[in-house]
Structures are given as C-alpha cells and as structure tokens.
Give the backbone structure.
Amino acid sequence: MKLATKLQTALNDQLGLELVSAYAYLGMAAYFQQSPFTGFAQWMQLQSHEELAHAQKFFNYIGERNGKVKLQALPEPQSDYKSPLQVFQTSLAHEQKVSAAICGIYELALAEKDFATLSFLKWFLDEQVEEEKTVGEMVAKLEMVGDNRNGLFHLDKLAAKRGDRIA
Ligand SMILES: [Fe+2]
Ligand SMILES: [Fe+2]
C-alpha cells in the first residue's frame, strides 16, 4: 500500500497544522500566565500538549506508511489578547479550521481509495467533534458571564478542573 504523493503532502500539512495548533495554544497559555487566570493558563498548556500528541500521531503514521516527513516553519503565535472570551473564540475558530482540514484529507483518502488512512483519520474526526464541543461550551459560558468578576473567577476554576480530569 503505497502512500499517494498527494496524500503524503496532505498528511505533512496536517502534521504542520497540529504543531501550529500546539504553538498557538502555548501563546494563549503565555497570555493567561500574565493574568490572574491560572485555570485558563493550565487549560491552554494542556491543550498545547494534546496538539503535540496529535502531531506525533501524524509523524508516526507517515513513517509507518513509508512516507517522508517534511517539517515546516512555524509562524509566531499570537500571545496578546483582549479577554478570556477573545482567546476562546480564537481557539474555537482554529478548531473549526482544523476540522475542515481533517475532512479535506478524508476526502482525498476516499478519492485515492486509501482505506488505511481513512481508518487512521477516524480518531481525528471524533476528536474534533469533542474539541469543538468543549471549546464551544466555554465560549458560551464566557459570553454568559461577560465582565462579571464572580462569573469569570468561577469559570477559571472550572477550566482548572479540566486539567485535573485529564492528568
Ligand atoms: Fe489537534
Ligand atoms: Fe485541537
């Protein structure tokens, strides 16, 4: 089962996008690190680690298929934001972009009749549903509390719990 060149390029692009994600979340963590929101900082650190693990999965898969990994330069991530809401809105938009990218590779694998890659991508399709849901819920909660300090304090504590659950 030779990996089609087009598919190898798409998988390498996705490996890059996962690293861009890890870096973007590290930028968000850096923003929160300078703020009183230690829970949000923890959330973003964890998110960054998860994205690195995703990148690793693509790296390994390309290797397993005897493909060639091609690493790309990473752009400088944003680390200045106006508010926690703006950070999470940016995160949601980013996850939606990643979901669309995964679907694009899925379509390509389908056209190439590369069933092994379709099977590999299944985990990422499910993961993206979960990510968009989790981030979307936090956006909705942040919109609900607005500038209310008590509300923000509570949501920051809730964000810290996400780390407890996964760690
Ligand atoms: Fe990811
Ligand atoms: Fe993600």
Q: What stands out?
A: The chain is about 80% helix and 0% strand. The chain has one domain: 5-70+80-166. The two ends are 37 Å apart (CA to CA). Residues 21, 51, 95, 98, 131 surround fe (ii) ion (ligand 2) (CB under 6 Å).
